Amino acid sequence: VCRWNHEVRGEILLYAGGCFSKSTKLYQAITNASFDHLVLQGPLKDQIREDFTQFLTSRETYESHGVPWKRGALFLGPPGNGKTMCVKALVRLLAIPCLYVQSFKSEYTPLQASIEALFQRARETAPCVIVLEDMKLYTLGKEVFARDAHCITCHQADGKGIDGIYPRLAKSEW
Fold first, then answer.
1. How far is Cα 38 from Cα 145, in angstroms, rounded to an integer?
2. Contacts of 159 (CB under 8 A, 6+ apart)
3. This prediction's pTM
């Protein structure tokens, strides 16, 4: 029963308030999103689609060359320019799980524990798309890196990284 309940079917995993929940509303928004609805300059729409699609099909190539199979993208711009719609269209196109972070703020869960919970779930779910909805989360990661000399949102304090996303630092030359 626990394993069945842990599975995601027709939902998106939403992280907010220190825990995960399943959102059918967000899933519906993603299934309705399409690159056809986006207006992007020149060939940008096709380049985004092709880049992520090619990446997901090239894991063996990366591994054969000893290169970590990971990808990160940061969509920046003022509100209303289509960042969220583009991410939703990507998630639909790639047909891989999505972990959607609304906020790491929680009354009872420390920030470090929230970040660790997110990346533990990402390790279990990889490959997946992690969406950090709020730019404050990105800024927070930069502040932590400046203070602790490692980014807990990428490599984790335990050095485990996330297979297929962020390289392992524990027991490495780094």
1. 34
2. 168, 169, 170, 171, 172
3. 0.70
